[in-house]
Design goal:
The protein has about 270 residues and is α/β, with parallel strands linked by helices. Helices cover about 35% and strands about 25% of the residues. It has 9 helices and 14 strands. Helix 1 runs parallel beside helix 9. The protein is globular, with a radius of gyration of 18 Å. About 45% of the residues are buried. It comes from Streptomyces thermospinosisporus. This is HAD family hydrolase.
Length: about 270
């Protein structure tokens, strides 16, 4: 029976130039592979060693890219290895099968959000009304499921984030701050629900996961075994849980270590 590996992408397996954390002397820096181009510019990278590990992992397990990115944002990533049959986008709002949205899954998600959460327009209006244009650079709606702001992090008031989180929680939404983005996401919109659906379809007898942010917590807790890097939203608050291993590596080398751990676990007898 197959193992299923559901891994977050940004700052878990792939890294922007700003997130690489290349602290070693230049001559000892790892060789990098560009895995995403946007508007004719390289955007995301992994080490060449990590690329080889991901290729091996794709051959040994059901590898499922699992991301808060929209479908369009995900589809510009060109990961090494066999093309994944399944992918989870929009934080679980879309389950892709061979690159196409599973419409039955999406309809089930929409029905649950309508039953349990305040509507997206209400949340978006609150975001725009309370945020200060001094530190907001962009505002976006992702696949008509959730909203986020791109902000100047050094100018963002911590108290505003706490107030927003409390306001959102009372309406069935969660708030997550990741780098320069602050997300407002419906609480039932989870990566773990989509992972469980793929595990059911594939008959996977082992589920593994990796992620770095608050939006990955449900995924990490739902898997049989999980890993998080030494950077990111979870590392900042020293988050831990049974079955979740906190790794010391930071930056792009953390992505390499995570893939080593995943591949070793998939290959181990069970």
């Amino acid at each position: 029976m197959p193992a299923l590996v559901a891994s977050d992408l940004d700052r878990t397996l792939i890294y922007s130039a700003a997130a690489l954390a290349l602290t070693m002397p230049d001559a000892r820096a790892p060789r990098l592979l560009c895995v995403e181009v946007h508007e004719s510019k390289p955007l995301s990278y992994m080490t060449e060693t990590a690329a080889g590990l991901l290729t091996d992992l794709g051959d040994a397990a059901v590898f499922v890219p699992t991301t808060t990115r929209t479908r369009k944002q995900y589809q510009r990533i060109n990961l090494p290895g066999p093309p994944p049959r399944f992918a989870i986008c929009a934080n679980g709002g879309h389950l892709l099968v061979d690159g196409e949205t599973d419409r039955d899954w999406h309809a089930r998600v929409l029905a649950r959000l309508a039953d349990e959460c305040a509507p997206l327009p209400e949340v978006r209006e609150h975001l725009l009304r309370t945020a200060d244009p001094v530190w907001v650079r962009k505002q976006r709606v992702a696949d008509d499921l959730f909203a986020y702001l791109v902000v100047e992090r050094e100018l963002l008031p911590e108290e505003w984030v706490k107030e927003l989180a409390a306001w959102a929680e009372n309406r069935g939404w969660t708030v997550s701050l990741q780098g320069r983005k602050i997300y407002a996401v419906p609480a039932p919109l989870t990566k773990s629900a989509a992972m469980h659906e793929i595990a059911r379809r594939t008959g996977a007898d082992l589920t593994l996961a990796a992620g770095d942010s608050l939006l990955d917590v449900d995924l990490l807790l739902a898997a049989d075994r999980s890993w998080r890097p030494g950077h990111g939203e979870l590392a900042d608050v020293d988050w831990s849980a049974p079955g979740v291993r906190a790794l010391p590596e930071r930056g792009v080398l953390a992505g390499e270590r995570i893939l080593r751990e995943l591949l070793r676990t998939v290959r181990a007898p069970r």
